[in-house]
Amino acid sequence: MAAPPSFLWTRRVFLTLLTGFVLLPVYVMVSSSLKPLEDVTGEFRWLPTGLTIRPYIDIWSTVPLAKYFVNSLVVAGAATVCSVVIAVFAAYAVSRYDFRGKRVFSVTVLSTQMFPGILFLLPLFLIYVNIGNATGIALFGSRGGLILTYLTFSLPFSIWMLIGYFDSVPRDLDEAALVDGCGPLKALFRVVVPAAIPGIVAVAVYAFMTAWGEVLFASVMTNDTTRTLAVGLQGYSTQNDVYWNQIMAASLVVSVPVVAGFLLLQRYLVAGLTAGAVK
């Protein structure tokens, strides 16, 4: 049954308005990043009169953006790898085995998502400082401490999401692998994990994006050496001036890895997010 013409026109108008609403801030960012500072701070113009790529050159010298970039890649990458590896083992155990406290564990993992992250800021700060004073292990102000902090956010969600995905993978695959001589670990990595690639990719993207754009904990748990991009962008705002064109340029540059990764993994991400919705 064909849709009526009124519905088609309404859909087109709505999608056009929605697209314009989404792309308008992006256009303002791009146009502002290609203007001199005096043009950005002056009267706003939709069409810039003088274009320059100088802001994209100056962003690397105004603040140590390259160092912040490396810190963000290391922290976000390590947090993503640890979150995926731990979540795969934990979710597989919950999905495939019955053990005492299984329901309590699942509910506890899910309930951690109900609390705002700011509640964990002071406890983690005190824990890291006390561990450093007692053992000499410097978690506060280090990349390792920030990675552990991000695991407290991404790991519970990753486990819960992979439990639903592993539940959608037929148990017959595990049983067939066991009959063929595979142990539990070989069955996991040779059968279940390849079948769960979309869900694992979705978890990895979520963990990476959570760590890449986080500001609150990164502003408290880091110092000048370990500062990440989300905090380092504040360096373009000084007591004397705010380099708006460089802020826009730097924001576009730091968003490239996330956007590129999302475009490359989009088909896996969509399949992973919808997995387990239909039994």
Any overview of this molecule?
72% of the residues lie in helices and 0% in strands. The protein contains 14 helices and no strands. Helix 3 crosses helix 13, helix 4 runs antiparallel to helix 10 (197-212) and helix 10 crosses helix 14. The chain is globular and about 70 Å long. The mean pLDDT is 84.
Short description:
With 279 residues, the protein is mainly alpha-helical. The chain contains 14 helices and no strands. The protein starts with a helix and ends in a 6-residue tail after the last helix.
SSE map:
Layout lengths: L4 H29 L3 H5 L12 H9 L2 H32 L5 H10 L9 H15 L7 H26 L2 H9 L4 H12 L1 H16 L3 H6 L7 H4 L11 H21 L1 H8 L6
Helix pairs in contact: 1-13, 3-13, 4-7, 4-10, 7-10, 8-9, 10-14
Rg, rounded, reads 23 Å
Average pLDDT confidence is 84
Share of residues in strands? under 5%
Low-confidence stretches: none
Number of strands: 0
Indicate the overall shape.
globular
Distance between the termini: 28 Å
In helices, the fraction of residues equals over 70%
Name the features.
mainly alpha; globular; 0% strand; 279 residues; 14 helices
